[in-house]
Amino acid sequence: MTSSSPVVPADRADRADRADPTSPRGAGASVELRSVVKQYAGHTALNGIDLTLRPGELVAVLGPSGCGKTTALRALAGLERVTAGSILVDGVDVVDVPTHRRDVGMVFQSYSLFPHLTVRQNVEFGLRMRGVDRRGRAARSGEALDLVGLSALGERYAHQLSGGQQQRVALARALVTRPRVLLLDEPLSALDAKVRVQLRDEIRRIQHELDITTMFVTHDQEEALAIADRVAVMRDGRIEQVGTPESLYSAPQTEFVAQFVGVSNRVPGDVVGGLARVAGAELPVVGAPADGPVWVLVRPENIALADTGVAGVVEAVMFLGPVCRSTVRLANGTVLQVQHRVEERRPAGTAVHLRFEAGAVAVLPRD
């Protein structure tokens, strides 16, 4: 895992306490943040954000440090009191509902495991606080540990686990109460690259299996694009754009989104009759911008090294494993990032020609 505030029905608020221990999953809730504002001593951390999560959807909130993404998650969790706006879970405003009655599970960057408790006891902790009996705790903790692949490590302590295993325990602890909303705040940032990818994929699998509505906060755009149904890009307390990973990558609506999500070359050009004229090429344009001067946003993978085309000189080459990315300076001073096969790399100082191969490109107004 907003207006008038209706009374929260007792059966909804207490659902996690009385969930059927034989049920393998719960239905995800709908979530809405409406015009949410959060201010701290004159600083506005959230500046009227609007965001909807559909039942069972995973929405990644992406942005740089300090943009407000964690504040938005904490507001949904009830850990931050909002200054204005509404937060609806299944249509019920929960702004005045305490955290333990919001039916949410939370996983944070720090594992926060109790060092004196075993893995199983850590997972059972939330159930114990809810008064679930021993038999129910055993059944549900076993189910949660099976989900995260740690059923064989239930009697170990935190210091006997790797970082990835500890984060799996934290995830199992969040899921064991069967929340209808799961909140993940940079849960993978403390892990090494290989474990990050493995656990990222595991989180997505579990989220699909449980059909649980999930908000995933991250500053890592690759992480967001890889697992989210939709991505909300934040900047300075506002949401710049919300869309599928594909739409954000191929049709960014602002220069910030274009630069933050992936890598874009920002090249001066002109729109004439639905085509962007840039560096001697004519490229189809996303949307229907008016004719005139624009910035054309071209991805590095949509520019090729060629025998003929726009002339330039290689300034630097970066090896990225399966591909290389070369920095090429054109005669007019424009610097482009070009992504190509490793065997095509040329040393710095080599004269080259470039061909624009993009399909539809995004453009932004140029004053």
How much helix is in the residues?
A: 10-25%
Return residue spans where pLDDT drops below 50 for at least 5 consecutive residues.
1-26
Report the CATH superfamily of the largest domain.
P-loop containing nucleotide triphosphate hydrolases
User: Approximately how much beta-strand content do the residues carry?
Assistant: 25-35%
- Give the CA-based shape: globular
Q: Strand pairing plus helix content: what structural class?
A: alpha+beta
What is the topology, as strand order, of the major beta sheet? 6-7-8-3-9-10
The total number of structural domains is 2
Overall mean pLDDT score? 89
- CATH architecture annotation name of the largest domain: 3-Layer(aba) Sandwich
Number of strands: 20
Radius of gyration: 24 Å
CATH topology of the largest domain: Rossmann fold
- What is the H/E order? HEEEHEEEHHHEHEHEEHHEEEEEEEEEE
CATH class designation of the largest domain: Alpha Beta
Gap from first CA to last CA = 42 Å
Please describe the topology of this protein.
Layout: H1 10-13, E1 31-40, E2 43-53, E3 58-62, H2 69-77, E4 84-89, E5 92-93, E6 104-107, H3 119-129, H4 134-147, H5 163-175, E7 181-185, H6 193-210, E8 213-218, H7 221-227, E9 230-235, E10 238-243, H8 245-250, H9 255-260, E11 265-272, E12 275-278, E13 281-284, E14 292-298, E15 303-306, E16 310-319, E17 323-330, E18 335-341, E19 351-356, E20 362-365
Parallel strand pairs: 3-8, 3-9, 6-7, 7-8
Antiparallel strand pairs: 1-2, 1-4, 4-5, 9-10, 11-12, 11-14, 12-13, 14-20, 15-19, 16-17, 16-19, 17-18
Helix pairs in contact: 3-4, 3-5, 4-5
